[in-house]
Amino acid sequence: MDRRRFLQTALTSVAATSVFNRSVAAEGAYSVADSANAAEPTGRLQGGLTRPLREFRLVAQQGEAEVAPGKVYRNWMYNGQFPGPEIRVKEGERLRIIVENQLPEDTTVHWHGVPVPNAMDGVPGLTQKPIAPGESFVYEFEATPAGSYIYHSHVGLQIDRGLIGPLVIEEATPHVAYDRDYILVLDDYLSGDPQPLGGSAGRGGMMGRMMGSDREGGRDGWWGGRRDDGGMMGMGRQMPPYQGLLIGGRLPDDPRVFETRRGERVRLRFMNPSGATTFRVAIGGHRMIVSHCDGRPVEPVTVDSLVLGTAERYDVIVEAANPGVWPIVIAAIEGNAPPGRAVLRYTDAAATALSEGVPEGLRGGYQLDYQDLQSLEALPVGQPDRVFDLMLSGGMMGSAWTINGQAYPNADPLMINEGEHIRFRMRNHSMMLHPMHLHGHFFRVGNVLKDTVLVAAHMGRAEFDFVADNPGRWFFHCHNIYHMEAGMTREVRYT
Three-class SS of residue 229? Predict the structure, then answer.
């Protein structure tokens, strides 16, 4: 079909443009060059254009992570840091990332949300051979589009060993103004070795085998509050025994502190590369202006709280107009882990103690819904050329997690053709929510572009549309890594 007919330009609010399109003076929360061994950009000829080349080195290794004073655990990490070092580049630059494996197991790195060439996607047994202990692999791709992304291992349960980190591609002209720029990596912390749960018990793990009611999610639905049953619901234990929830690698008794001054606008990039936890987020004494969803710009919308499924990202602007020391709190939607916390501290305020315990946004107020989001970019429109109806189920009595009754890798690929308009329609027949992620593509959910979408538990439904414009063999899977390992994965294959 004519792809021009498939796209329409989303309308941009004139008022929003005039209010938010001011000059930016951002202060990064990390030192990129020091933390990720970044090389200075050099000229590189590509297609007749000279694009800067940024080179980074990531070493996957064992080490110790101090998540609070006196709480030091053996972990796997990148460059001796947990979370891994920030990689921050400008849109259009060329990224070359050399990954060295000093672990006792195979590994890879996936660049979550970035539509990289298929060979750079980091899925062992599908897009590359795994990186063996003592070996290296070079990933190279263009840093586009701008946005907040995640990098992480795509082997087994290695995410829950600590192999996660943030990737930021800076836009040339942000549509929102801000004075400071902070990354908040949200995580569920497991001090021991992760073990398969529920459906994956005794199966050896999917990646290991590869290598040898009409309820919509929403403000009043499944993500309205925390479940206190630990996600078990008669299925046996379905959540790992997490020791706590982390922001920036710290437990709440020794929280990260993010500083501001009265009158500033602070950009907070919330990223959830956790193994299995969906978070509800709120900030004491402040509302949040959502500006980006999964890295893509949206018309600003003001909320009191928001929900991040595993692998989702939201950028928000906080207007610093309420001096004090305020908690940034994350609470688990499923499971029994106690809330995590960071601190927003005004440097020009006399207060030293927290101004509030539990933010009002976690007790009520307005919670972000997908329906609130309006893209500032072109969206797929029209009728699809191909529709896939996908039933998500499993987890009962130790069974596999499946899509249409099939557990990967013993599952039929979803076959598509380049240029087609594809629609995935999902229904969740299980008792747990599923954050579903498609590699290599952005897709339309409502009026926003995303790469990961939450599907509500107990017959919840979700659907998305995308253009088949990045040929290859791509993973489509639940980003709860325990569900993925137990089979809730399909290959999307171009013919």
Answer: coil
Looking at the structure, do residues 338 and 382 belong to the same domain, yes or no?
no
Tens of pLDDT along 309-339?
Answer: 999 999 999 999 999 999 999 999 987 888 9
Whether 262 contacts 320, CB under 8 Å: yes
Helix, strand, coil percentages (3-state) for the chain, rounded to 5, are 10, 40, 50
Q: Which two tokens stand for residue 482?
A: 């325990």
CA dihedral 141, 475, 270, 466 (to 10 degrees): 90
What six digits make up the tokens of 61?
């290794």
Lowest model confidence (mean pLDDT) among 4-13, 83-92, 434-443, 456-465: 4-13
Rounded Cα gap, residues 307 and 332, in angstroms: 10
In a domain, 328, yes or no: yes
459 in a domain, yes or no?
yes
- Residue 235 CA to residue 227 CA, distance in Å, equals 15
Residue where a domain terminates, one of 349, 372, 395: 372
What pLDDT does 353 receive? 82
Higher pLDDT pick, 365 / 219? 365
Please state the rounded mean pLDDT for residues 375-400.
90
Number of residues that this document lists for the chain: 495
Amino acid of residue 473? R
Query: Which amino acid does the sequence have at 321?
Result: A
Residue 15: burial class (beta carbons within 10 Å; 0-12, 13-18, 19+): exposed
Count of H-run helices and E-run strands, the chain:
6, 35
pTM over 0.90? The answer is: no
